């Protein structure tokens, strides 16, 4: 029986509309409407894009149904697996279903709406502004700026049935096309078809007769094939010898196509790991492995050989990396092994390029996907293995709605596809390591570096002793000596400036005034090169003042350590050193990371100075010295993961030294030389850190012993924010068992951002089956929240608690 009703999720992200709506399927569209296609439907007075999520032959709604107006896709953009996944993600992350579907698709598929005005009455406005507006056409774009009087006028016309406002939904998801030609059927191509003296045309005619082609050629390819110009091909089209057509072409997202490499002979440890992974691929077991391998232990080669096994089995592979821009070498290695079978999804691509890559995956042309967080939704069928490299990285968790963790999504997809998941890291998250301890994940270790290269010796420098008039505050004599030494040997150094919660500020030395953001409770950051003060939360910018706005003194000074300032100092200490700086500013332009890393890799600089970005994935055999300027800044953060983050960062960055044949060394400057996170990172002792930190988490009732849910309540008024927060906490407590712990409400450490106030409630629990549903109901049914412009964000297992 033919379905008559479609269930559609419309493009309005509110709790009230977060449910499928029934629409009638007109006869003419009956064969096109199926689950997973995008449609355009009327919704109230508007027209909206929506997704068909189901079909039925009876409508729950017994009134007259509105009908679907248009079907946007010829084939579903979400196959049944992805459609089910979108629903699962929405439920488990407390997000709107429409938001998860949009997150799963390339941005080009997101609806863009335009409004138009159409004059419908016979007589156009005779004079004034209306006459000018409709002078050339009856339908015009909705004006960008309207005065109140003009708006009133428009409303009057609408009321009088003289004018309509229409919403046009644009489908931006278009393939890029190029002009092409095919042979015109039944056309006699003799030399008489063109003038005798038209040499090029005669040449083309002869070519078409002696060397005809089948199918379609783009104009330039056709021209090249017959040794004529594109202009001649166009003439041939005009003459009717060739028919013009278009072909879809692929925007080329990767300028570099590295040379192919061959699988390496695995070491015994690597082999033993790969054997287990390959066996799970073959057996189709949705087993999760935790590959704990020290930096430089050859995890990547194991990934690549496991991917090969999945391909050999006729299946596909998904590989997630923290951030492509920061891990170009990893992408390079996958491309070198698998070439064109790889699709790369990363934030540096334009919307069009992303859309092209997405289609190559959907059509089965790309069987390996490498990408950052959102690539976990890649439309791969028949997945044989999912790999998550650097699985501890926080970037796998999206910190805005939908707040999904790519690892959880991967585990869910693996269950559907019956395939293994490999989580790899030198410093696994405590959550994953604890699961391996309990046997939920299978622990596989690579304890040695490739070729028995020793881990570099680490020297901890106590910066409390680095005082006195003659010393540089950011550079201990030991670090300076090591940098000089490395420079003298013509080797390279990497210097990490840990900037989390740390930046340069403008202060008045006379009265202590500090430049603050007018919209947020945070001080402004000095950007010296651009001569600006910038708010890193709301984007507010202002010039650096020359006089204090409070006391009018001209003693405005900068303090705090920005990368630019450290670069200045460093250049003064080492005048001959060639320094490359890598931070948010120097990498803002497209391809900025790659450019800097390339230059450094080619030996065009002696020192790479950068923020956290340099800690990851770099594999430069020429680096023999790694220095950490300030190991402590992350330790001071009011977050229970502060030690874990510090340990991870220091271990990762220390692993950058001595990866080649020359031995390396590491210098860590700190004000907390005895802190266990720093001590254990210096020894690269992950297991020691894990045991120690687990005891503390147990005492503090934190993950992985407890689950956490963070509610963030915000409103333009602080009183309302506080009131609603207390009300929600009050409503929440009866839903919870005795073992759950509710912390707060408390104002967030940065209470005001962009003129909204933020309060938080943290719930810690072991098992609360009713919590999800309860939270959902509490928010859906709350009219008070709606009325008072209150927003509530729910974050399950938040990565940042501040
Ligand atoms: P990890 O990802 O564990 O930090 P990598 O995969 O970057 O380690 O490997 C470190 C280095 O060792 C790389 O330069 C890699 O090419 C090399 N390597 C890996 N496996 C082998 C092997 N089996 N034989 C020789 N060299 C290898
Ligand atoms: Zn002042
Ligand atoms: Zn601000």
Automatic annotation (TrEMBL):
GO cellular component: primosome complex
Any single biological process term in GO: DNA recombination
Binding residue positions for Zn(2+) 2: 517, 520, 535, 538
Enzyme class name: isomerase
GO molecular function annotations of the record: 3'-5' DNA helicase activity; ATP binding; ATP hydrolysis activity; DNA binding; zinc ion binding
SMART domains referenced in this protein's UniProt entry, alphabetically: DEXDc (SM00487), HELICc (SM00490)
UniProt-annotated binding residues for Zn(2+) 1: 508, 511, 548, 551
Keywords, sorted A to Z: ATP-binding, DNA replication, DNA-binding, Helicase, Hydrolase, Isomerase, Metal-binding, Nucleotide-binding, Primosome, Zinc
Domain Helicase C-terminal: 543-697
NAD is among the record's keywords: no
Coiled coil, from the record: none
Keyword NAD among UniProt keywords: no
Co-factor requirement: Zn(2+)
Cofactor remark: Binds 2 zinc ions per subunit.
NCBIfam families recorded: priA, PRK05580.1-3
Family affiliation: Belongs to the helicase family. PriA subfamily.
Quaternary structure annotation from Swiss-Prot or TrEMBL: Component of the replication restart primosome.
Function statement: Initiates the restart of stalled replication forks, which reloads the replicative helicase on sites other than the origin of replication. Recognizes and binds to abandoned replication forks and remodels them to uncover a helicase loading site. Promotes assembly of the primosome at these replication forks.
Official protein name in the record: Replication restart protein PriA
Species this protein is from: Schleiferilactobacillus shenzhenensis LY-73
């Amino acid at each position: 029986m033919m379905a008559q009703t479609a269930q559609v999720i419309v493009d309005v992200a509110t709790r009230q509309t977060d449910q499928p709506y029934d629409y009638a399927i007109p006869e003419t569209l009956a064969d096109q409407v199926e689950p997973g296609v995008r449609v355009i439907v009327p919704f109230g007075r508007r027209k909206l894009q929506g997704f068909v999520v189901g079909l039925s032959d009876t409508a729950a709604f017994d009134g007259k149904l509105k009908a679907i107006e248009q079907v946007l896709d010829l084939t579903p953009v979400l196959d049944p697996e992805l459609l089910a996944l979108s629903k699962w993600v929405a439920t488990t992350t407390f997000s709107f279903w429409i938001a998860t579907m949009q997150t799963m698709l390339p941005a080009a598929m997101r609806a863009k709406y335009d409004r138009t005005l159409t004059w419908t009455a016979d007589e156009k406005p005779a004079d004034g502004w209306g006459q000018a507006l409709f002078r050339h056409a009856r339908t015009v774009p909705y004006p960008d700026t309207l005065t109140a009087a003009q708006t009133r006028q428009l409303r009057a016309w609408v009321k009088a049935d003289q004018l309509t406002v229409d919403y046009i939904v644009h489908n931006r998801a278009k393939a890029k096309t190029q002009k092409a030609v095919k042979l015109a059927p039944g056309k006699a191509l003799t030399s008489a078809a063109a003038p005798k003296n038209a040499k090029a045309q005669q040449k083309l005619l002869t070519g078409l007769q002696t060397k005809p082609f089948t199918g379609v050629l783009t104009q330039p390819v056709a021209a090249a094939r017959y040794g004529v110009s594109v202009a001649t091909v166009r003439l041939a089209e005009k003459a009717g010898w060739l028919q013009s057509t278009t072909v879809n072409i692929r925007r080329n997202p990767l300028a570099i196509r590295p040379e192919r490499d061959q699988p390496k002979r695995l070491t015994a440890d690597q082999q033993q790991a790969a054997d287990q992974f390959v066996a799970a691929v073959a057996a189709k077991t949705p087993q999760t492995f935790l590959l704990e391998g020290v930096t430089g232990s050859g995890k990547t080669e194991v990934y690549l050989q496991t991917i090969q096994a999945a391909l050999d089995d006729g299946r596909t592979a998904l590989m997630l990396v923290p951030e492509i821009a920061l891990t170009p070498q990893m992408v390079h290695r996958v491309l070198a092994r698998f070439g064109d079978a790889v699709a790369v999804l990363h934030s540096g691509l334009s919307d069009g390029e992303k859309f092209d890559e997405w289609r190559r995956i959907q059509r089965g042309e790309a069987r390996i996907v490498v990408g950052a967080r959102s690539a976990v939704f890649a439309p791969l069928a028949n997945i044989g293995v999912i790999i998550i490299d650097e699985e501890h990285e926080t970037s796998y968790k999206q910190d805005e709605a939908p707040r999904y963790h790519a690892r959880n999504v991967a585990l869910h997809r693996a269950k559907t596809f019956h395939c293994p998941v490999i989580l790899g890291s030198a410093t696994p998250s405590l959550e994953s390591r604890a699961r391996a301890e309990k046997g939920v994940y299978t622990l596989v270790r690579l304890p040695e570096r490739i070729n028995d290269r020793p881990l570099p010796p680490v020297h901890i420098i106590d910066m409390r002793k680095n005082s006195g008039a003659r010393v540089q505050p950011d550079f201990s004599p030991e670090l300076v000596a090591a940098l000089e030494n490395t420079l003298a040997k013509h080797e390279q150094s990497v210097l990490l400036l840990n900037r989390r919660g740390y930046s340069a500020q403008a202060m008045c030395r006379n009265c202590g005034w500090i430049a603050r953001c007018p919209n947020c409770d945070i001080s402004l950051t000095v950007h010296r090169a651009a001569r600006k003060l910038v708010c890193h939360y709301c984007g507010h910018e202002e010039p650096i003042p020359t006089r204090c706005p409070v006391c009018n003194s001209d003693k405005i000074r900068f303090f705090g350590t920005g990368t630019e300032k450290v670069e200045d100092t460093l250049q003064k200490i080492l005048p001959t050193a060639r320094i490359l700086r890598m931070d948010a500013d120097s990498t803002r332009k497209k391809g900025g990371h790659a450019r800097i890393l390339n230059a450094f890799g080619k030996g065009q600089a002696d020192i790479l100075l950068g923020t956290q970005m340099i800690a990851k994935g770099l594999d430069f055999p020429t680096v023999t010295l790694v220095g950490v300027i300030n190991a402590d800044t992350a330790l001071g953060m009011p977050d229970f993961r502060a030690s874990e983050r510090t340990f991870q960062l220091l271990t990762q960055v220390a692993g950058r030294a001595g990866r080649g044949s020359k031995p390396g060394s590491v210098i860590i400057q700190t004000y907390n030389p005895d802190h266990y996170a720093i001590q254990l990172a210096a020894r690269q002792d992950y297991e020691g850190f894990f045991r120690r930190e687990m005891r503390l988490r147990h005492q503090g009732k934190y993950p992985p012993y407890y689950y956490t849910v963070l509610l963030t309540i915000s409103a333009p008024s602080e009183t309302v924010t506080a009131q609603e927060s207390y009300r929600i906490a009050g409503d929440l407590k009866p839903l919870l068992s005795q073992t759950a712990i509710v912390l707060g409400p408390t104002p967030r450490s940065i209470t005001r951002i962009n003129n909204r106030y933020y309060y938080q409630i943290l719930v810690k629990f072991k098992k609360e089956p009713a919590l999800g549903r309860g939270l959902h109901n509490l928010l859906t049914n709350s009219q008070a929240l709606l009325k008072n412009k209150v927003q509530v964000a729910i974050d399950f297992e938040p990565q940042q608690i501040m």
